[in-house]
Design a protein that fits this description.
Blueprint (H helix, E strand, L loop, with lengths): L45 H13 L3 H12 L13 E2 L4 E2 L13 H10 L3 H6 L1 H18 L12 H8 L4 H17 L2 E3 L5 E3 L38 E3 L5 E2 L8 E2 L1 E2 L3 H4 L4 E6 L4 H8 L9 E3 L6 E3 L6 E2 L5 H5 L1 E6 L6 H4 L2 H18 L8 E3 L24 H7 L14 E4 L28 E3 L30 E3 L3 E8 L2 E6 L2 E6 L7 E4 L3 E4 L5 E5 L20 E7 L4 E13 L8 E13 L4 E5 L3 E4 L2
Helix pairs in contact: 1-5, 2-7, 3-5, 5-6, 6-7, 12-13
Length: 627
């Protein structure tokens, strides 16, 4: 979440093998008791078996139950820990505090599931198999409540799915049902957080949800799925909750908030999508974005169901990135969540809605789907040397970029041989669990062990070697969860500086940085990409946090903005992966009520993956090498 956004020359704003089972007639009167003589199954497949048993007992198609659970939790149990909504287990059964449709005796999903299965709530929370039975019982009850008989055809459960979602908005309920059918078509398989192997066979055709090979696509719904002047794909639930564009009360200089009018659809200045998390609740985020003296962003996504609210038209400039150049050239997506509590907030429903939205934006503005154009807020550079230390760190090391890009249809896969000049960071998310601190009140307090998509970078090929130092921050790097100084994240690509046994070195922040990359369990894949290096004869070149035009490009009525290099440099011989190439631009927004202007220069810049954050270098300073 952004508590501040810097505007230069304008306003300063504060702020899983499926068991084919013939279902029994579903009945709330069937007690949920162990099946006599049930054969033992291998431990790693026991949850898969549990889905089949639960589906059989409650008359729910087993594949549908698997799809619902995948959407709820990706089949993870989180060791009995609840989500922020009080959701437990593979079916994400919520507690009594969460409003949910009345399908049985009790309040909330857990109490109603306990009533239907005749199992105690504590067991439904802690035992994944019992949790799955509870979810199956609730889905069967929803089918009865919808006035439908049990069916082996998943498509006949659409109304039950909408009820099961618990969504208050009809559009969000329809979107949930659509998403379940999308999961059925995809047929995911994975090993969950407890080491359980789960597989769901793909349904190549599902009635009520047309077949699609696009992982980001889903069936279109009627226009009621969206409200107001929203700019969203028809595959998500979206509403319009505008951010205010107005003069600030008591302002003596015509100051205004909380975004700028622009014409970005015409001038083609949108190059990036920035992924944030709110570091707070949906309600808080909506309250803040509606304050004229606070900052703004284009979209907020709700954790529980992926519902989206749009606040600022895409043509206009929101104040979200903490870097005015990035604000002017990007769209900001805020995700309800807290980076230190990913299991509580980063839900599958939200990942999928976000991926659909990002795909829509990328197609609309011709934005490449890679990590140099789809940025985390923690990848945005400081605009000036003074701002580097205060840059944000969300969505953090626990955000699953690999899964996100799989949903985008752009997985990170090898594209080169073992001696490639470029590697793309890609640890196996579930198995990769580097330690972090600072998830509690103290920065030195260890965080709970958790999967991560980030690798740690060292000064030497030795796990005991110090982490590389981020000179721009002026402090030694740590393993603190908010410290990005010695971190490379999934999808980021870097030039290889050296390989030595199980270690790979990359050029990073002007130095050689090492990370463990054993052949038996690689944390990066070999790829290709264009590279650049300082032009011959230059000992080093500066790195910038923004790509502003030269002074002569500004008209007389627009003050020229200083082109200030950061404290970072690229020494001769080092190479960095190239992203966007564009002339220097500055978005000038001064007068209330009038769209701002884009000033473009002749000085051309290249975006590079410099460290954990991107940077910019002048074309005149570099030589570009082939990919």
């Amino acid at each position: 979440m952004h508590l501040s956004a810097t505007r230069t020359g304008g306003v300063a704003a504060a702020a899983a093998l499926l068991l084919s089972l013939t279902p029994l007639a579903a009945s709330a009167d069937i007690p949920d008791v162990p099946v006599p003589g049930a054969r033992a199954v291998p431990a790693a497949d026991s949850l898969q078996q549990a889905f089949g048993v639960a589906a059989d007992r409650y008359g729910v198609p087993a594949d549908l139950l698997l799809a619902v659970s995948y959407l709820q939790s990706r089949w993870d149990a989180h060791d009995g820990s609840p989500s922020v909504g009080g959701g437990y287990g593979p079916m994400h059964l919520t507690d009594a505090r969460t409003p949910w449709p009345r399908l049985a005796d009790g309040e909330g999903m857990l109490a109603q599931a306990a009533s239907l299965t005749r199992r105690p709530v504590a067991e439904l929370r802690a035992d994944p198999a019992a949790n799955v039975r509870g979810g199956a019982a609730l889905l069967a009850a929803a089918q009865r409540r919808a006035g439908h008989a049990p069916s082996a055809d998943p498509a006949r459960w659409r109304d039950a799915l909408a009820l099961f979602s618990g969504a208050q908005e009809p559009a969000a309920a329809r979107a949930y049902a659509d998403e379940v059918f999308a999961v059925l078509r995809e047929g995911p398989h994975r090993t969950n957080d407890a080491g359980q192997r789960i597989a769901l066979p793909a349904h190549r055709s599902t009635a009520g949800a047309p077949e699609s090979t696009d992982r980001s696509a889903a069936p279109a719904r009627d226009a009621a799925a969206s409200t107001g002047p929203v700019e969203c794909p028809p595959t998500v639930s979206c509403e319009w909750i505008p951010a205010p564009y107005k003069r600030l009360d008591g302002s003596s200089d015509g100051d205004f908030g909380n975004h700028d009018l622009a014409d970005r659809d015409r001038d083609g200045s949108i190059d990036y999508i920035v992924v944030h998390d709110t570091e707070g609740s949906w309600k808080t985020a909506l309250r803040l974005v509606q304050k004229p003296d606070y900052v703004s962003w284009q979209y907020t996504l709700r954790s529980s169901d992926g519902h989206i609210a749009q606040h600022v038209p895409l043509k206009d400039v929101a104040w979200h990135a903490g870097n005015w150049y990035t604000n002017a050239t990007s769209v900001g997506l805020e995700h309800e969540g807290v980076l230190t509590a990913p299991d509580a907030w980063y839900t599958e429903a939200m990942y999928r809605a976000s991926a659909r939205l990002t795909r829509y934006l990328a197609e609309r503005y011709d934005i490449p789907l890679d990590r140099l154009h789809v940025l985390g807020h923690d990848n945005v550079p400081g605009a000036t040397p003074e701002s580097v230390r205060g840059m944000h760190t969300d969505p953090g090391p626990y955000w699953d970029w690999a899964h996100y890009f799989e949903l985008l249809g752009k997985p990170f896969v090898p594209t080169a041989g073992p001696d490639s000049a470029v590697v793309t960071v890609r640890p196996e998310y579930q198995a990769h669990r580097p330690p972090y601190t600072g998830c509690g009140k103290k920065s030195t307090e260890p965080c709970p062990e958790h999967a991560s998509g980030a690798v740690r970078l060292h000064t030497a090929p030795d796990a005991k070697a110090p982490p590389v130092k981020d000179i721009g921050r002026g402090t030694d790097s740590t393993v603190q969860v908010n410290d990005t100084g010695a971190r490379a994240s999934t999808g980021q690509s870097f030039a290889v500086a050296e390989r030595r046994g199980d270690w790979t070195a990359i050029w990073y922040l002007g130095q050689k940085a090492w990370f463990t990359n054993p052949a038996a369990r690689p944390t990066a894949v070999n790829t290709t990409a264009p590279l650049l290096t300082p032009r011959a004869g230059l000992a080093s070149i500066p790195v910038y946090g923004r790509a502003y035009p030269e002074a002569s490009a500004y008209p007389a009525d627009v003050p020229a903005q200083p082109v200030v290099p950061l404290t970072y440099r690229i020494p001769a011989g080092q190479r960095y992966v190239v992203g966007e190439r564009a002339p220097g631009t500055y978005f000038h927004a001064k007068e209330y009520g009038k769209p701002g202007r884009v000033i473009r220069g002749t000085e051309v810049y290249y975006e590079i993956q410099y460290g954990h954050r991107i940077g910019y270098v002048k074309e005149s300073d570099v030589t570009v090498l082939g990919g």
